[in-house]
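To: structure subgroup
Subject: Chain for Friday's discussion

All,

I'm putting the inputs and outputs inline so they're searchable in the archive.
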Amino acid sequence: LGRFGKSAKTIDAFVAQFKDRYEEGPPDDWPDEFPVDTKPKARAHLDVCFFLKELLIENMNDAMNSLPYGIKERLVPPISNLAKSAMISFEGVSVIMSTPLPLPYACLCKLLLTFWMVSFPFVEDAGLGVFGSVVVPIVIMLALLGIDSISTELENPFGDDANDLDLLELIANFESEAMTMLEMSGDDKAMDRFVWRRLPQRIRDMSCKPIYRMLACTELAAPDLVPGTGDTPRTTRPPK
């Protein structure tokens, strides 16, 4: 964050406000509304992908470079394609979350379904008996109502509802796998850049799985805020 100027001071001030309120949340004296800059700016995932590609080029070993470290030139295109694929997937998620179902279409579906359920008894054949004229229509109505309810839930599977995808679990698995890959590759320098921190209870309750820790940057993680947690001595030692 050194290249971004005031970022370090901002993080320190933010940590100081949450020092004694890690589980409770923001301080009580915080205002209900904050001024927001609505000017169009680059989105965060675009900055991350650009930063990853920049690191790939800066640390690439070409034919004229015989240094023992860095990324082999033949590995740069596959890694760049992975970053591109991740960016495209993120764009798809953004489109799903920001594109609501058209209101006239939703109203039309509800209206037609209601009209069919109300008018169905008037055209029913009483000669079919109780099962054919009462049970079967009720089952069909319940099935149509269930399909309509399921389609409403599938419209946006990203969120905090009970039926939404558990994104916190996916992030926790990704963090654990990334640290395991660094440990297996013996990259101690990269592992020292990160440290485990206890996940706040209010965020822990959002996941259906028992997630107790999160990965933080060593330079930004305050050691006096929450003690480190983990399974190995490396993840439990305080940041340098």
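Points worth raising on Friday:
Strands lie at 60-61, 71-72, 194-198, 213-217.
The chain has nine helices and four strands.

D.
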